[in-house]
Specification:
With 361 residues, the chain is an alpha/beta fold. 40% of the residues lie in helices and 18% in strands. The protein is built from 12 helices and 16 strands. Strands 4-3-2-1-5-6-7-8-9 form a 9-stranded mixed beta sheet. It has a 5-stranded mixed beta sheet with strand order 12-11-13-14-16, sandwiched between helices. α4 packs parallel to α5 and α7 packs parallel to α10. 40% of the residues are buried.
């Protein structure tokens, strides 16, 4: 039964090692929630370099990781390997699976006798494909647990075959232990069930905002996992197309509202200088915020001549800008701490953006 609990390092008195494959923000947050006698290692999936987290109990930042032993030694000496490389292809199922296989190829020589904890959300049946791929390369796949990270980095469902689930993972998860296939379905159903009510409000585009665009669409990944390659007549494909069409409709409302506000303020659209203040989580394993950011970027640069993209984790460069378009609540907070001397501030809220004139002092 997969409900068995592996012994805790607190009980054995021995430090245990966990290797995190990927420098994703979700894995770093998971590491920050661990406490006790742990030795944590991170593998940069791009450079294939291994690092040690020197301050367990806080969320490790990339610049706080210390170069250490080789990738082989870091993985081979760990009891569990948590797998969550950063997705770069989320809409193309074949490209996404090829990404996964290429990362597994790096790890396979060192996984014998280990437990692979797959924290990367995948589609129905794709855990089985991963296990078949590893079996073909290794003869016998490693221990395997599915622990998909949802929006915000939480883990709600655990999927296991016959493996014991480590106690540290049970403590981090908010839900129950299921079979792998059951956890696949439960994760997708849970994320989409949370996202869909907010998106439906975008159909009529009325009512108070449900939050920023990024937050309203946190679940894009799961809609692609369930529907991007589904039969066009299926309900799964209908979910996928609803998400895509609702997002595209929002982009049309955004550009149209901005144009109207610019004209009403007395500016010419061709001369309006726009700054987009949005700091996307580029390290997220899920990849959906970058997907949304790139499509917003494409829509704005197609509709306006002078568009600059600004991050709030760096000194704000908003001088000589007429309009600032705010992408997240964190970016809005950063803007509130400085004086903006332009004409319009637009908040990328959903289902409609909110645009206000700047009160000159």
């Amino acid at each position: 039964m997969p409900h068995l609990i592996a012994p805790s390092p607190h009980l054995t008195g021995m430090a245990r090692r966990i290797a995190f494959y990927g420098l994703s923000s979700e894995l770093r947050r998971i590491a920050g929630r661990l406490s006790g006698s742990w030795e944590l290692y991170f593998v940069d999936e791009v450079l294939c370099a291994a690092y040690r987290a020197t301050d367990v109990g806080r969320v490790p930042q990339p610049d706080s990781l210390t170069p250490m032993i080789s990738l082989e030694e870091a993985v081979s000496s760990s009891s569990e390997v948590v797998f969550a490389p950063r997705y770069r292809s989320i809409e193309d199922a074949e490209a996404r699976l090829q990404e996964i296989r290429s990362h597994l190829e790096v790890l396979l020589p060192f996984l014998k006798g280990k437990t692979l904890v797959n924290a990367l959300p995948v589609g129905r049946g794709e855990n089985s494909q991963m296990l078949e791929f590893m079996s073909a390369r290794m003869g016998e796949p490693p221990g395997y647990i599915y622990a998909p990270v949802g929006p915000g980095g939480s883990i709600r469902y655990l999927g296991a075959r016959d493996e014991d689930v480590p106690e540290w993972l049970l403590r981090l998860a908010d839900g129950e232990v299921l079979g792998v296939e059951e956890a696949e379905a439960a994760h997708i159903d849970g994320v989409l069930s949370s996202m869909m009510p907010a998106l439906v409000r975008g159909v009529v585009a009325t009512g108070p905002p449900v939050g920023y665009l990024r937050d309203a669409f946190s679940g894009i990944l799961e809609s692609f996992l369930v529907g991007a390659n589904a039969d066009p007549g299926s309900s799964a494909y209908s979910v996928y197309t609803l998400v895509r069409r609702t997002f595209d409709e929002y982009l049309r409302r955004l550009t149209s509202s901005l144009k109207d506000a610019i004209r009403e303020s007395g500016m010419k659209i061709s001369r309006a200088r726009i700054a987009v203040l949005w700091t996307p989580d580029e390290d997220s394993a899920r990849g959906e915020e970058l997907w949304a950011f790139e499509r917003v970027k494409e829509a704005l640069t197609s509709a306006f001549v002078d568009v600059a993209f600004v991050r709030s984790d760096r000194p704000l460069q908003l001088e000589r800008r007429d309009v600032v378009l705010v992408g997240t609540s964190a970016d809005e907070e950063a803007l509130s701490r400085r004086r903006f001397e332009g004409r319009l501030v637009a908040r990328m809220l959903y289902p409609r953006p909110e645009i206000a004139r700047v009160q000159q002092r």
